[in-house]
Amino acid sequence: QVQLVESGGxxxxxxxxxxxxxxxxxxxxxxxxxxxxxxxxxxxxxVVAFICSDGGSKNYADTVEGQFTISxxxxxxxxxxxxxxxxxxxxxxxxxxxxxxWGRPLHPWGQGxxxxxxx
Length: 119
Known about the structure:
Layout: E1 3-7, E2 10-12, E3 18-25, E4 33-39, E5 46-51, E6 58-60, E7 68-73, E8 78-83, E9 92-101, E10 104-106, E11 113-117
Parallel strand pairs: 2-11
Antiparallel strand pairs: 1-3, 3-8, 4-5, 4-9, 5-6, 7-8, 9-10, 9-11
């Protein structure tokens, strides 16, 4: 069955950087686009980054454009989210998921990885 396992969360200071990873299994990774979503405390889950199946096209939410970078490694069945200049508002649970198109996730979700931006 489809499994998505996120990792890389933790505690980071404001202005710091972090890289999240998501290892996929149970399906043909290379034929699906992928997205990263985040759910901040008290808010609904929102999509922050999208990458097409071959990695040639990427999109970002306006709030993270220029700050986050999504990438994928087909050989490792892994999608990454590189995050820089982190601010308190970036705190939340981050999840990866297969995607049809921007904002159209394909279940199931992974368990997510939590990180907190705090001094």
